[in-house]
Design brief:
The complex is a heterodimer of chains A (214) and B (160). With 214 residues, chain A is an alpha/beta fold. Chain A has ten helices and seven strands. Chain A has a seven-stranded parallel beta sheet with strand order 1-2-3-4-5-6-7. Chain A is globular. The longest helix of chain B is centred in the N-terminal third of the chain and has 16 residues. Chain B is of the alpha+beta class and 160 residues long. Chain B starts with 11 loop residues before the first strand and ends with a helix. At the A-B interface, helix 1, helix 6 and helix 8 of A face helix 3, strand 6 and strand 10 of B.
Chain lengths: 214, 160
């Protein structure tokens, strides 16, 4: 079981290089990180997976962007969530592994229909810790409400969850212990957090039937 | 005033936190204000009032936060939401929790930069290079205030 931070934005999007973020992640108890952006390459330390985030206005745009060579090269492909119809459609696209940014969408944007499809297709929903750590007041409260709602759907339908720090700096990365504490704010248990932290590993190398080689 | 007998005193817990970035000189009062702001914002006045968080030590890149026994998990979670100290970007990383400050002092390992800071240019900006153990390199933009911080490794610096 590999404990993975599902999304970080290293230099030049942030102020820390992928290698430094990987070092920091190891100190904080992670086995690997998913780094989004250019110039991400494997390092000697903890595993750095290549990530791609698709921000598209329509499903047509998403289908166009998943054919992009940079997205094809990525180990983990995620898409920013939008309104209800978009989310219902995007979870059935084969190339998409994670739907992220749920906290920024409207209430019920990810509903039971999308949840059931995500569970059938094995598409994960990402829980970003950035709004809990960085925001204050009503905006943070709204994010916690959205995450509690996602958690209740996850318990009902069983789609995978991932947890990301969305860090643009090593100062925004949090330890596994802190992740447990922050996720407990919206009712996630320790076992569910462990399961979610290990989800990226299962998405990258899914369980497939044993192939007999003669 | 006669002190309370030990059995009647409030039981306390002490949380050792490391202040990031390395080399940041933080005032105890400013750390306290950041901790209280983060805790009140996250947990509310009632919970923070009961937890009684206080910063009892701050030096050498470490701080010790005191709280009531039983509330240490909540306070540690609140510490994870600290993002600035005195308007400078910072993070508090929980290292250990103990019932005595003495036990926590044993866990403090001061991290100091290599003696000779170098210089490098990234883009058009000039940075002072501070090297830390385990190949970590912090670049601080040269200037008087609001300096940009970059976090590299030795290998990253050599590649440039």
């Amino acid at each position: 079981m590999k404990i993975t931070d599902a999304c970080v934005y290293p230099y030049p999007a942030g102020d820390s290089t992928p290698a430094r973020m990987a070092f920091e992640a190891r100190d904080l108890g992670f086995d690997s990180i998913v780094a989004v952006g250019d110039g991400v390459h494997p390092s000697a330390g903890p595993e750095v997976l290549r990530g791609a985030v698709i921000g598209a206005a329509s499903i047509k745009d998403v289908l166009k962007q998943v054919r992009d060579p940079a997205v094809r090269r990525a180990d983990v492909v995620s898409v920013n969530a939008r309104e209800i119809a978009f989310n219902r459609a995007v979870v059935s696209i084969k190339e998409i592994q994670i739907v992220r940014g749920i906290h920024a969408t409207q209430r019920n944007a990810f509903d039971h229909v999308a949840a059931r499809t995500a569970a059938e297709r094995g598409v994960a929903v990402d829980i970003s810790l950035a709004p809990i750590v960085l925001l204050r007041g009503t905006r943070r409260q709204r994010a916690l409400q959205r995450y509690a709602d996602i958690l209740s759907l996850q318990r009902r339908y069983g789609f995978p969850l991932t947890i990301s720090s969305d860090a643009r700096s090593i100062l925004e990365q949090r330890s596994v212990r802190d992740v447990r504490g922050l996720c407990a704010l919206f009712g996630m248990t320790g076992a569910e957090v462990s399961e979610a932290l290990a989800s990226v590993g299962r998405l990258v190398t899914p369980d497939t039937p044993v192939r007999v080689v003669e | 005033m006669k002190p309370r007998p030990p059995a009647m005193r409030t039981k306390r817990r002490y949380i050792l936190v490391r202040i990031h970035p390395y080399g940041m000189v933080a005032d105890q009062k400013q750390v306290y204000l950041s901790v209280i702001e983060a805790a009140t914002s996250l947990l509310g006045d009632a919970a923070v009032g009961l937890a009684q968080p206080a910063v009892v030590f701050c030096d050498g890149g470490y701080a010790v936060v005191r709280c009531r026994r039983g509330s240490e998990a909540d306070v540690a979670t609140a510490l994870a939401t600290v993002t600035t100290i005195a308007d400078r970007r910072a993070a508090l990383r929980t290292v250990a929790v103990s019932g005595t400050i003495h036990a926590l002092r044993r866990r403090m390992k001061p991290i100091r930069p290599a003696p000779d800071p170098g210089e490098t240019a990234v883009g058009d900006d000039c940075f002072t290079v501070y090297r830390y153990p385990r190949q970590k390199v912090d670049l601080v933009e040269r200037g008087i205030k609001h300096q940009k911080l970059l976090f590299f490794t030795e290998a990253d610096l050599e590649e440039r």
